[in-house]
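Before relying on records like the one below, remember that each one covers exactly one chain. Contacts with other chains, cofactors or solvent are not represented anywhere in the record.
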Amino acid sequence: MFSPTEILVFKALGDFSIVDRLSHNPATTGELVAEYAPQLVRTAVMKHLDVLEKAQLVHVERIGRTRRSHLHTQPLRMGPPSGLMLDCGRMAEICRI
């Protein structure tokens, strides 16, 4: 059984492209939307950032109406708990957003 935090991390990593982009430097939501258009619309980017923030992989700095997202890799450095066995079918079910 996965912890709630582990489930959030798995969901957040379901689409790794935004995590990869933020690993280079922070970005505002508008910058991410501009970079990923037309594949992702604003609501999809915001939903993904929300999942990343809940998983504590992204810190969102709010300045007025602007949201700048910074990657926070500490949850990834902790590694899986001992004895964790991945069941691909279960992971596919868990990672549906």
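The helical segments are 4-12, 17-24, 29-36, 42-54, 74-77, 88-94.
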